[in-house]
Specification:
heterodimer, A: alpha/beta, Nucleotidyltransferase, domain 5, 5-stranded mixed beta sheet, 5 strands, B: alpha+beta, CBS-domain, Beta Polymerase, domain 2, 4 domains, 4-stranded antiparallel beta sheet, 15% strand
């Protein structure tokens, strides 16, 4: 609710600005699957290491139209996150600045709905950098992959909790696990999951 | 791209780094449900599809209302398809997801770019396509190609060049050419050579009215058209045709070696088929013949190495083997006996379908009442000499050294008829071998009398044909329910699974319709002309059989030195096949499967 009000307010402020197109209602049939690799899972402390995104059009994952951004290494790149992402400072030495990255992300997503696995985390991470610079957060419609999955599963079975772990979903959907823990790899996998859920038969619970 | 796109697979491994980048940058992922069409026949496909996960079948597009679809091939993970359709701009077949499928899609535009920028990559597709097109179009080919492709530019067909020095005059040159019976000379000018032909001289003196003292180097042409020594003679001929010239200069490492004249090339090709034969023909002694016979294995190797199709190599080798046997028979059998006996070769030799020297299968038919006391010793020597020549002993002892296979005409005929009436497996096999008999030496009339009598006897005997044909269904065709090649660790027995069903089925039909040919390809042609086989079906069978023979030969040559080879010469190891051959084999096995169905309908066989 709170986000909805915020978005309304920001739209009023920005719809005639240079980023006005972001606030237009979306009428196309594309969705953007996006994933950020970060130094932590706590939005306040975390910093973005890389951003990957692909467009989805109908039952097709447009891997030819993709975003694969590596950022300049943040000062907080520590041992713990290195273990997860296997991204070391040296891997990011050729990264780009956050300003540039945000420009690319906004241009790529436009006003399309954004898809992710725990998409709110990725949105909050991007907003954290967007707000101080532009004065708005992403206004896009958000699609949560685990909700889509949950709804398809629920319609198949009664009661019980649904296992929403990433790996479980991938194996239930019988999808190949692409390079896990790279932003683009995860974005593509999530995109495939989405397409599979939307167009394929419901998976067994 | 961080997906499981395997770039180390052919043909993608042929791409350069920047081309791979282009490829990666343009791949999309498509998701298809079971039954969904990835490519629809008659429409332009989006591009090349590479399966990431799932299974796709390629099927023939059928008219509305037809219930059964004909499946050609199945594609699984990492398989690709659609290139042919994409390059042609129109798909011939349907490509349908057999199960949920995720596939990479490379748009046609980018595929074309890569095909043009990387010739090897392009070749890989065109090679596949050429082979596939062949299956679809069932073209016949010039049999002479086999020899065309064999011949190389070497001393055999090359002339020594006549060379004059720079200062020589037109008059001196003409005199020299006349003396040496040459119609062209090479003129040396510094480090270069130029060519002057008789026509050039004539033009210079008569039309241009040059003085006879003009240096010949003034009228020479220094732009020499050359071929490298060792190049195919066929290429030299092509060059001459393209350039409208009648001679090319042969070079070796920038050294002038000789000249090839058009007439030489033409006469070489017209006589070459006799060259090998002549050696056999001219053999006066068994030793001469032995040398010629031993040369045959090298011939086969070089045929295969030069990419000559097994089917044509087979014709050539069968003809040579026949000549060797005929010659040996005439050398050994007394002259006065020869008109009263007939040597027949049977089985694959009779059909002219062996490539590597295979087991001897031969017999002698004698005129009724002939008394030939010394025959056992002579025929034993015949068999033994053939073994020395490298033709292995027949494990079933179907050889002239075995008196069982040396019979008088009426006994021979009666026995064939007895076999036909008996039901047991061994006599059926004997009969199958015997009906492929072909006379190679002695008096062929004896053989013809036996054959014609047998064919008359069998005509209309439906029970016999039904019984006889059954063997064709005996072995399973190694395809799974899904239609891909069954992976057996020990490989596929291509003879049982592919060759025998076609050969035996065609043999049965040929007997029934009194086709006198013994070669399976020729039998198929005759059966087609008689309307017994549909045109399409005949073409499919010919292609399928050619593919089996070709693939078997490739693997035989690769394994000929292995110890296990002689135990299982018909084994095909699918993992040793490249993609294309695997596809072709798969399609060919499908043809066999269809043919078996056809046989069981025709002869009312129940499985």
């Amino acid at each position: 609710m709170l986000r909805a009000i915020k978005v309304l307010r920001e739209r009023k402020q920005h719809r005639d600005g240079p980023y006005g197109y972001l606030f237009e209602p979306y009428r196309g049939d594309e969705v953007v699957s996006l994933d950020c690799e970060t130094t932590s899972l706590d939005v306040k402390q975390a910093e973005i290491l890389s951003i990957g995104a692909v467009r989805i059009k109908g039952s097709r994952v447009l891997t030819s139209e993709r975003l694969d951004i590596k950022l300049k290494p943040p000062k907080t790149l520590t041992g713990d996150s290195i273990k997860i992402h296997k991204i070391r400072a040296m891997d990011l030495s050729e990264g780009i600045e956050m300003d540039e990255a945000l420009e690319q992300v906004l241009a790529f997503i436009g006003n399309r709905p954004m898809l992710g696995y725990y998409v709110n985390f990725d949105r909050q991470m991007l907003d954290k950098y967007l707000r101080p610079r532009h004065g708005f957060g992403l206004p896009n419609k958000m699609i949560e992959l685990s909700h889509v999955y949950h709804d398809r599963i629920k319609s198949q079975s009664l009661g019980g909790d649904v296992d929403l772990r990433f790996d479980t979903i991938a194996s239930k959907l019988n999808l190949p696990m692409l390079q896990r823990h790279t932003a683009l790899g995860d974005a593509i996998t999530v995109a495939l999951m989405y397409v599979r859920l939307k167009y394929g038969k419901a998976p067994k619970a | 791209m961080p997906t499981e796109f395997n770039e180390s697979n052919l043909p993608f491994s042929l791409l350069e780094p920047d081309e791979l980048k282009l490829l990666r940058g343009n791949l999309d992922l498509g998701y298809y449900q079971q039954g969904e069409y990835l490519i629809t026949a008659g429409e332009a496909p989006e591009g090349l599809f590479i399966i990431l996960k799932g299974r796709v079948r390629e099927t023939e597009s059928l008219d509305d209302g037809a219930q059964q679809e004909h499946v050609f091939v199945h594609y699984g993970s990492e398989d690709y398809f659609g290139a042919w359709s994409a390059l042609k701009g129109k798909a011939m077949h349907n490509f349908i997801a057999e199960e949920e499928t995720i596939a990479h899609i490379l748009p046609t535009k980018v595929l074309l770019e890569l095909v043009y920028s990387n010739p090897r990559f392009g070749d890989y597709f065109s090679r596949t396509l050429a082979a596939k097109t062949e299956i679809h179009e069932q073209q016949g080919e010039e049999q002479g190609m086999a020899e065309f492709m064999l011949a190389q530019v070497d001393g055999e067909c090359m002339r020594d060049p006549l060379i004059v020095l720079e200062g020589a005059t037109l008059k001196e040159t003409t005199a020299m050419m006349r003396e040496k019976h040459a119609d062209c000379v090479l003129v040396r000018k510094g480090a270069r050579y130029g060519i002057v032909t008789g026509t050039d001289l004539l033009n210079a003196v008569v039309l241009k009215e040059l003085s006879l003292d003009t240096p010949v180097s003034d009228i020479a042409s220094y732009r020499l058209i050359t071929v490298e020594a060792g190049d195919y003679l066929f290429n030299a001929l092509t060059l001459m045709t393209l350039q409208h010239i009648e001679r090319v200069v042969v070079m070796k490492d920038h050294q002038l070696l000789g000249i090839i004249e058009l007439t030489d090339v033409l006469s070489y090709f017209s006589s070459h088929s006799h060259v090998i034969g002549l050696r056999i023909q001219r053999a006066q002694t068994i030793e001469d013949l032995s040398r010629a016979a031993h040369g045959l294995n090298d011939l086969i190797r070089s045929l295969a190495a030069h990419g000559v199709k097994a089917r044509f190599a087979m014709d050539l080798v069968a003809a040579m083997n026949e000549r060797v046997m005929a010659k040996l028979f005439t050398l050994l059998v007394p002259e006065d006996i020869l008109p009263h006996v007939c040597l027949v070769v049977m089985g694959s030799e009779g059909r002219g379908e062996q490539i590597m020297k295979t087991d001897q299968d031969n017999a002698v038919i004698m005129r009724d009442g002939l008394d030939w006391p010394g025959r056992e010793a002579v025929l034993k020597r015949f068999t033994e000499t053939l073994i020395e020549f490298g033709y292995p002993e027949c494990p079933g002892n179907i050889m002239v050294s075995n008196p069982y296979w040396v019979q008088h005409l009426s006994d021979w005929s009666q026995r064939m008829s007895d076999w036909a009436g008996s039901a047991d497996g061994e006599t059926m096999m004997n009969l199958a071998i015997a009906v492929d008999a072909k006379p190679v030496a002695g008096n062929p009339a004896l053989f013809k009398a036996a054959r014609n009598w047998f064919l008359r006897q069998m005509h209309d005997n439906q029970v016999f044909f039904s019984h006889f044909s059954r063997a064709a269904l005996e072995f399973d065709t190694p395809l799974t329910f899904f239609g891909s090649i069954k992976k057996r660790e020990q490989g596929i027995d291509i003879k049982k699974g592919g060759i025998f069903p076609i050969v035996h089925g065609i043999r049965t039909m040929a007997l029934q319709h009194r086709v006198l040919e013994t070669n399976t390809f020729k039998r198929i042609d005759v059966l087609r002309d008689q309307g017994v086989l549909k045109k399409q079906q005949a073409g499919d069978l010919v292609e399928a059989l050619s593919i089996f023979v070709q693939i078997r030969l490739q693997q035989q040559l690769a394994r000929i030195d292995d110890e296990a080879f002689s135990e299982a010469p018909n084994l095909i190891l699918p993992e040793r096949l490249d993609r294309l051959d695997k596809d072709l084999l798969r399609e060919a096995l499908h043809v066999v499967k269809e043919f078996k169905k056809h046989l069981s309908m025709r002869y009312h066989l129940e499985r």
